[in-house]
Amino acid sequence: MKKWTALGQAVAVNAILLLCTAAAHAELAGACALPGHLLPAESQLERVEAAVKKDKLLKVLVLGGVSSTLPGPNGASFAWPARLEDSLRRRLPGMKIVVAAHTKGRQSASEMADTIDQLMVDEKPNLVVWQTGTYDAVHGTDPAEFRATVADGVEKLRKGGSDVVLMNMQYSPRTESIVAVGAYADGMRWVSRELEVPVFDRLAIMRYWYDAGQFDLYAATKDLKMAKAVHDCIGQALGSLIIDAAHLEAAPEGKAPQ
Questions:
Q1: Most buried in the list 8, 41, 75, 124, measured by CB within 10 Å?
Q2: Rounded to two decimals, what is the model's pTM?
Q3: Inter-residue contact 59 to 85 (CB < 8 Å)
């Protein structure tokens, strides 16, 4: 396990503060509107950049849990991994984009990390989007242990030949007073800064949408219309972060390529 010294933690905290004031690289408008500071791209995706420019190919593997899925026979086509693929295809015309999702419920970060070596052999991705944290928060995994597990997992993914984007848990105003997710989200931000990998701060992004009145995440409903809209916006936002972090020339979101 990676050891985190007091000095290392202090540096990471300062880096997080700098992150909050960093210059904006991308903004989303319309129903998915986000300020640029929520999509920082200071950490670079060099393998993605090389693969796209050399082979015109981007293979993305999503490693995550049930919050990366939607129910129903057509749920996969509306969940954010599929919406990410659609967004990247629209914005990167002429490129072959493949997004594969390896999702399984009730998995800790440690259990996900145990699958990395085989997944890298099977999928050979240029980029892995690792969504984790919810299960560990619900079950009270020691935050320091969680943080070290994520750091070790990132290093394994890099050794396997892939860039990494970390994604934290989704925001729910119904459960924020019940499940303490802050320490786990902070741990992922620390790993992001320590190992220089982007983090897609889904927790902060969804909270922004809720506070801005874009999505009523508190309303109890079985209607999947809002869930589909949120997943679509997550796909668009994540696509923007990837494009910026890999320095790719792309069409704006929402506009068809000429």
A1: 41
A2: 0.86
A3: no
